[in-house]
Amino acid sequence: MLRNLFFLIIWMSGIGLTPSCATAVMSTKIGVTLEIVDEQGRGVPYATVWRYLLPRTNPLAINAEDLFRITTRYQSSFEFAVGVSNNKPVPYLSVDPMGNESGRFHREIDYRYEEGSEAKRPEKMSIGFAIMKRGYLPAFVNFAVTNESTLSSRVVLKVDPRRVPELQPYLVNFERLRFQLSDTRLNEDISENNYQRIERLRTEFEATARQALEAGDKGAAARIYARLQYFPSIRLIRGKPAGFSQAEPASEQSIAFIEKAYALDPANPYIAAKYLFPQGTMQYGGKKYEANKANEEQRRNFSKYLSALHVLMRTYGEEIWPAYHQLYARWLLKSNDPRDRKRVVPLLEELYRVEPKFQMRDMPSPKP
Predict the structure, then answer these.
(1) In the predicted model, is pLDDT for residue 112 greater than 60?
(2) Count of CB atoms situated within 10 Å of the CB of 102
């Protein structure tokens, strides 16, 4: 009740927010500028920005209340969400480029790009943003749009009393590097210059992880390695740029990064899920494990694996992304224990209740 009241206050009065709009000829494109500052009015560098846009034709499209819920729930993992490969908590969450070093965020939103080339811009739209930075409470700004072509707002981030801002040099650098990657459109430039840029960023990421390790901060190093799982690349043919990839999370190199991250910090909810669930698929997925055909050793090993998932979901369930809750339920179907199998339907019902914008109820669940 209190959380809903707080959200209503933000929506109605815009605490810390001063949105403004400029009217122009109707266009499918809207330029949005946010000035992100702290309570002293100083620019907050490298803030993460999530967004919703309405109306959309898909019923899974999120609104202001959904964005508030998703942002609040997944605070421990917001830095890992990317706008490619669907690596984000729910499908219709937009992960925008981050704010820059001075706290300025700018994004041109094209309704046709978002909704389809045949889509016409509606007479009334809603656009909202969540702004996040470790050490600060998330802030929200929402715009009711008619024929505006530009939108702007000043967003004040308030210090989180439970967490201190991350000022360690390697974490400041991590934020800067994340910013460099956050505009995924830049990765589509198939050129020698962009190839050099991406390779330089990869080298800097790994060097920053080593700096964190040298400082004894395994948790920070793990976060940096985990972010490397979703990294762009320019493909070369005969030494010349010939294509690009926004991310290859299943590549040997990417898997090695998440394995290294898990070895450093197995208690990080995002990293643990990213490591444990694919491990199960490799060892027990499909017909690799069937309880009625398994021998005693196979049953014992599978039970051990399932116990690790039990601990993960019991300890960090609220912070684990919805896709893994769904996979967890599918793994329970393979359990040797009938009590586990009876939990599947209640778990899925709870998933759809807690996160209704993850997937339509009538869509099939992926098999582990």
Answers:
(1) yes
(2) 13
